[in-house]
Amino acid sequence: MRIPRAPRRQSVLRHTVLAACVGLLVTLSACTRDNGQWKLTNVSGHLPDLGFSLQADNGQTVSGASFAGKTTLVFFGYTHCPDVCPETMARLMQVVEQLGDDARDVRILFISVDPHRDTPQTLHTYVQAFDPQHVVGLSGSEKQIANLARRYRVAYQAEKPDGNGSYEVTHSSAVYVFDRTGRARLLATASDSANMITDDLKHLIKQTS
To answer: CA 89, CA 107: separation in Å to the nearest integer?
Structure first.
């Protein structure tokens, strides 16, 4: 597994700009932050249900239906990401810890936007370093990833490779939350703390139990 290096200002700025674009799209879609019920952005009725067919980090093909009965968090990233991805995953690990017993029916899907490098084996090593019980790495063909990203309005773009052939992928940083039935319910952005995500997940789990 690659050890994340220190965040670089240019990369962070690119991710911040794309995150703001996603936030704008959500706002234009009439999604709201319900100060009475939710701390995160309420996307109920504005995004499609959890639907995909991809290859998991264990080599098996899984679909949205594979996670029926689970409260599912979806994050689009890649294993070579130097800053936003490890930071987001670390925040979600805090959420899992804070959920306690409620975490047993929560799954985090790490969907790669870099299918060329993120083989199932690479993803397996990556998710194992975080939490093999709750995190599943997913990848697929370029077309599969592009179609799924379009489905959930995720922006991503591979940057120009350097002299060694290394490159970064600029991508949205939002975390999508689906309830036990696979309905899209909430959206967490980089500005939402682990405590905020935990509070809303507890409420959502209780609401749909």
So the answer is: 12
